[in-house]
Amino acid sequence: MSDNLKNLEAAIAGILANERTPTPEMIRKWINDFRKIPSCAIDDDTAERLARDLEMRHGVTMRIGSLLVENEFKPWLDSAKKSQIDPFYWDRYRKLLAQQGFSSQVVATMDDVTDRTLGLLEDPRKEGPWDRRGLVVGHVQSGKTANYIGLISKAADAGYKLIVVIAGIHNNLRNQTQVRIDEGFVGRDSARLLSKKSDRFIGVGRIDPSRRPVTFTNSIRDFNRVIATGFGMALQDLMEPAVFIIKKNTNTLKNLFEWMKEHSASRGTTSINVPMLLIDDEADNASINISHGKDEVSRINGQIRSLLRMFDRSCYIGYTATPFANIFIDPDSDDEMVGEDLFPRSFIISLDPPTNYFGATRVFLDSPDQIIKHIEDNEDLLPVKHKIDFTITALPQSLIKAIRTFVIARAIRLARGHEKAHCSMLVNASRFTGIQGQLRNEIHIKMTYIQSSIKINSNLKIESALRDPEMMALFNVWKEEYSDTGFEWPVVQKFLFEASAPIKVVEVNSASPGTLNYNDYEETGLNIIAVGGFSLSRGLTLEGLMVSYFLRNSMMYDTLMQMGRWFGYRPGYDDLCRIWMPEEAEGWYSHISESIEMLRDELRSMEAANATPEEFGLKIRSSPDTLIVTARNKMGSAEKVVVRVGLANSFIETAILKRDTKTLDENREAVVRLGERLSEAGLSGSGLTMVSGGYLIRKAPVQIIMDFISEFKNHMGSILTDPGPVKRYIEDRIDGELAEWDILFTSKTRGKDILTWNLPDFEINCTERTAGRKSDASTLRVTNKQRVASRGIEKTGLANEVIAEAELEYRTEKGIKGEAANYPDWIYRKKRKYPLLIVHLLKILPEDGGIECNKPVTAWGISFPTTTMEEKRVEYVVNTIWLRENYRFDIDEEEMGGDDE
Predict the structure, then answer these.
(1) Among candidate residues 278, 280, 282, the one with its CA nearest the CA of residue 260
(2) What are the residue ranges in the chain where pLDDT is below 50?
(3) Ramachandran area for residue 769 (φ above 0: left; ψ -120 to 50: alpha; else beta)
(4) So what's the architecture of 143-320 in CATH?
(5) DSSP string over 224-235
């Protein structure tokens, strides 16, 4: 970056620090005004790139999310701010955020959010014993750390004397968190503590070093009793707040507990009379009670509770992005759920991400066709399921293409002026460190070959350069992925050598030395291809992540979402981001993304109704998604697990079907009999309405639906469509909300090679679906994503004005201007008055010997509306043996058997 551009950016930054809502016109005027000064003169192209970058960063907004609070909590913060609180630590941190490029709107919202959170803790000056338990629900890689550093700063200002942050179960994540807190709260490089090196101020310490929090841990080592004892003082005697950043590890927690007991407990007691704040980062991981034996408490869960009980005055806040897996699901009974010490009985906060957040909704619901690339060539070279002694002999072509994509993407970033930016690629394809090492070596060999080809050819004329096969392969990647990103191939080729030369391939796991120290590369940017597993699956941030290659087989909500290291902020390069994964994984991500969006929507609704955290916890426990979560938690304790679920406001469908000829025939007959009963009731024929996607019948009596569900032969793998619980749920509402139904028979418009099927009074043009790769002789999985219905199908039967209302509410809630490209089906489901039965007659592709090509395969789905009645749950029996055989429930450290990271 030229000195003139640096000078110009510094000048503009001074203006932006005091401007809440800069418009694109204002930004361009400021740039053009300063360009007249010789020391800030830049060309037009550079000026426009700077304007777009500033527009993206400072046009960002962030809204306060939803909040549930227990009854009868007495507010205290507003009065304390008037006379008791000096915002020293928060003011330092706020100034640091502005220096780091956070928009003034985002900083202002963070100020509001952290105030709101602090106000839900207890007043640290309040005497007598008290404790508070809360939960903050964020998004993966959305800035939770930045948020809780702000909270730590304000808590210290308010009078909390001891702050403990439990940060992940691996050293590299703990170290990374320590560095962030050093920068944002401590103000000193903790790696120099108790060393012979001189003190070094960093971050907020450069803004105002007059006050210094005490840190008992540093960015190199976790908590150590000997080092802590070397400070020679008890916590009660500290003039400034003390902070511990520790690993979520039983030995670390044991050492911390015993040291505090020995050095800080009140004489003659085991308690400490210092107000303490404990922040549990990634609270769904290892903190929750997931022990396989009933009445057992997981060790870490118990240790956290013991640590809290040591303090007369304490607050616990769990931070998580995956609340389905959190603490209020696991206890067997509702009473046990509420009785859990870590249950967030005091408050639950849902954080809304800034508008520039690159998250699950953007990736999997709004723009999957652009961002997601499917892996279909790995099974011979790098199968999803492999043993610890597997040998890698070559890389799949999809991985080689992903590597080339990373090189091209970095070249485009250089063309955009991002020469100092960190750039990363993630490869997460095995849980075994030995295989990660093999993979790292193979990628290194391939990267070296690519670098050599670029070194030789990139300075040649285009025609000569493209005679080289590797250069042609890179050109084809540019043409397929990035030809519309603003730079033609000659420009990209010019930057290829500078883009590729510094790229290193590194392992990131428990066996690899050191950490990813981005601070050492502030002037040049760190450019890496990171190969790992669990360390890359939770918490660890890869700066500048552009390309991801994800080859893991997990259906667990927390595991999958936390593996999404590609979520986060991508200012100025979000259009370059690409993710390779199996199509099945994309299906699970899409489902989980919608489930979590529904959960957040439910939290907003419950906030409007003044509901409590306990009521929200009970609501989550009734979600159909708890079938999988609970079954996983009980996997080691029983062959079968009983789970109680409510089906209100949910969608279920038979995406897994029996494949034997007898069952296929019987299920076709069930559809024929459904058509006959509708005809006898006078509802088909003239009662049919042609709609988008098929034929609609309105106000069908519930008994016809009950008969069809009873006759349809369900596959045990299609858990939610088990006819017993579904019928019991309907029976509870048979005379009220579910007395009349809409029925949609899906049918496509005519075309070539359409399979047709006759029902009484009408003819179906069968819709086409593929057989998923995991289908076998006895089981048909409909599509790799295991989804039968098309997106938008649940608005069938709704009036146009109701559909428009649902879509407007969604756009308003999301802050979307204009028309949204993709609307989730749950927004229509909330508006339904009548339940919708969807009947599919499918032509399965490719045709094979397992299915008669001239007969359709039948499937069904139900969209259940919300209920105004008491939420009665029905019992499902989950066969854990079948789940274990068909799905991989990684990542749990206890399940790794010492062979993995």
Answers:
(1) 278
(2) 1, 292-296, 327, 849, 890-901
(3) beta
(4) 3-Layer(aba) Sandwich (3.40)
(5) -HHHHHTT---G
